[in-house]
Request: fold
Amino acid sequence: MPAPDAPSVPAPTPPDGLAQEHVLVQSRHGLGEIVLDRPHALNALTPGMVTTITRALRTWADEDAIHTVLIRSALPRAFCAGGDVRLMREWVREGRLDEVMEFFATEYELNELIASYSKPYVALLDGVAMGGGLGLSVHGSHRVVTQHSLLAMPETAIGFFPDVGASHFLPRLAPGWGRYLGLTGARTDAAGALDSGLATHHVPRERLGDLVEALAHEGVSALDAAHTPPAPAHASPTVDPALLRVFGTTPLEELGNVLAHLPNPAAATALTALRAASPASLVITDRLLRQGTGDTLHACLQRELATARAMVPDSDFDEGVRCALVERGTRPRWRDRDVRQAAVKEDVR
Ligand code: QUE
Reply:
């Protein structure tokens, strides 16, 4: 016999994409906590996860007892790998473009809600944080990295473009960083995240448990107390000022040539990434970053939504996601030969 208040039939396990799946929402001592928990997909965001996070934020905005909101991951490997682009690709192939666009629209709405949130919003970016994962964090007031953080906007590698408000936040990073990160998809560590402005604080992973306790009791003043400078870069080649200058000043069609003449291992890595990326993605990303420089986040997100609608049905997105996530390691065959050819096509669109 089940206990009187227990359901006689166990709740069915909802399939991926239904609300509440993979997100834990809890509050303690005035701290509202959102915990991402989709271990088999590095917390890649499903429509249901976006809905659950949005609902929690809207509820807490009006609750006087909540003084601070925290978003973190239950997994040590990743904060969040991005939107579930594998699922989006499948939906496109099934002719469900309207549902794909509905997902992007609600995700971008969440990005805007985070940017305008009325209370401190703290993201713990421990592990991998890419694409949509940065959309869940960079728009917030406080972004904490650790010695295990790896941050990136890798969408040009899958025939897409840095979205989730990246056309607003990338051009506002320290000079050169936005174009460097957005075009190459380079992963940057804690030091790079702080230098660029993606992150606001560094706290060693071992101290995150204490930090969450302190956030509950003291609010965000606990962040300044817990902050320590990161150790010198170990995970990635150092991004030097010369490389950032090149990215800050060189037209897209000349970037390859200029990078080839820089005696810096990071320049060679950047060049390899540009050569592997979708040429159409590079042209579109470059233009979005230029257009976003003077626009509000809302205007940037609207432009990104229109861009997503055009790019998601394109063969480069299908091919890019296939090679990165479905048949890993195969080399994508892009629509265009190089950025020159892609630029010509984009101009006549
Ligand atoms: C570029 C991207 C993404 C990516 C790889 C790229 C992205 C994304 C994922 C991802 C990773 C692990 C998963 C998953 C998706 O990978 O946005 O479902 O299990 O979500 O090169 O933009």
